[in-house]
Amino acid sequence: MWLFVVFVVTSSYTANLTSMLTVPRLEPTVIDIEFLRRTNAIVGCDGDSYVKHYLVNVLQFKEHNIKVVGSQYNYPGEFESGNITAAFLEPPHEKIFLTENCNKDTLWANL
Predict the structure, then answer these.
(1) Which of 22, 40, 86, 98 lies most in the core, judged by the most C-beta atoms within 10 Å?
(2) Which residues does 27 contact at the CB level (< 8 Å), separation at least 6?
(3) Which whole number is the average pLDDT over 91-106?
(4) pLDDT tens digits for range 13-30
């Protein structure tokens, strides 16, 4: 009986240690919307939707800190090049974006 308990504890410890050493910890670079405003971060949005109006008039982003991204397929390149820090998408585009880029990006807020 004790041999079985020792085996289970050892296996659990080994699995935890292996996961800590091999799986990188994903830390968000953006804390919240206030952080984006305070740091004057450039955020991306679709220019012909209500989202840009919402960012300016409700969330109080400065217009020069909003970059219009022409297509939802351009967002990964904008993130990789550092042109935008965050993206504000309409829910259907958000779901597609996250489905295609789930290994790199995360969703942390909905409008």
Answers:
(1) 86
(2) none
(3) 69
(4) 676 766 666 655 555 566
